[in-house]
Design a protein that fits this description.
Rossmann fold, 9 helices, about 20% strand, GTP-binding, RapZ_C, RNase adapter RapZ
């Protein structure tokens, strides 16, 4: 399939832009990273005219320096040439963790605090995020999940819905997840931990799942939970959120919370919303 599609890949440093560029390159896109902004309009016209690849991707970000001010002026012209903007996003916590793991220096922090550099970058890139056609939040995405999302959008050309719900089971004895938007406590349900043959199993095992869900309280809880989530999701999307973390906790995070998290994921399978699951304590 030959196309003149041009994608501008931009966003926060550490949010996955390099992975996005490499993924599209592997898929057959012509990719150019850190293209000078002065060349962007001519480049967009050239790729539109030639159309020799599946598409073309250009990486432009905070490294452009003062060129970002020029980009704000020419952006309408570039988009008029058919360019689409992919903005890579991630939470401050995720970005800080990634920088500490790689021991890299943020391009705008210098010798100062990392948090300050991230905030400055958000402010400078805000106009691009507001004009983005796609926003992908990689805070909780694995690399393979990001690649799959990119292929859906830019290869298979499926309709894009950037809102993703993460269902997270956890144990209260290990602390409440700091990034949870909604937290539900299921410690009121019968505990398989006290059943000898179930103690060493988890909510991923059929025997534990059936034991927990045989409780009328568990079925009522799931019904009320899905009813509320069904109400909240379109309102969160309308508000502009692009991800939601629903945390379900029990004492140890291996039996009841895992069961209800799995049951909620099953419910999502019958909707048009995207969801992923994590069992923190397993």
């Amino acid at each position: 399939m030959i196309s003149s599609k041009l994608v501008i890949i931009t966003g926060m440093s550490g949010a996955g832009k390099t992975t996005a560029i490499k993924s599209l390159e592997d898929a057959g896109y012509l990719c150019v990273d850190n293209l000078p902004v002065d060349f962007l309009v001519d480049f967009a016209k050239l790729t539109k005219a030639k159309g020799e690849h599946i598409g073309t991707a250009v990486g432009i970000d905070i490294r452009s320096g003062s060129g970002l001010d020029k980009l704000a002026d020419i952006l309408p012209e570039v988009k008029n040439e058919g360019a689409e903007i992919l903005f890579m996003e991630a939470s401050d916590e995720s970005l800080i963790r990634r920088y500490k793991e790689t021991r890299r220096t943020h391009p705008l922090s210098g010798t100062g605090r990392l948090e300050v550099g991230i905030q400055r970058e958000r402010e400078r890139l805000d106009f691009l995020k507001k004009n983005a056609d796609y926003i992908i939040d990689t805070s909780r995405l694995l690399t393979r999940e990001l690649r799959a999302e990119l292929y859906k959008i830019f290869i298979n050309e499926e309709k894009y819905n950037g809102f993703v719900t993460t269902i997270l089971s956890f144990g209260y004895k290990y602390g409440i997840p700091s990034d949870a938007d909604l937290v539900f406590d299921v410690r009121f349900l019968p505990n398989p931990f006290y059943i000898p043959e179930l103690k060493e199993k988890t909510g991923n095992d059929k025997e534990v799942y059936e034991y927990v869900m045989s409780s009328e309280a568990a079925r009522q809880f799931l019904s009320k939970l899905t009813d509320m989530v069904d109400f909240l999701l379109p309102n969160y999307i309308a508000e502009g959120k692009n991800q939601l973390v629903i945390a379900i906790g029990c004492t140890g995070g291996k039996h009841r919370s895992v069961t209800l998290a799995n049951a909620l994921l099953e419910w999502f399978g019958g909707t048009n919303y995207k969801a992923r699951i994590e069992h923190r304590e397993i």
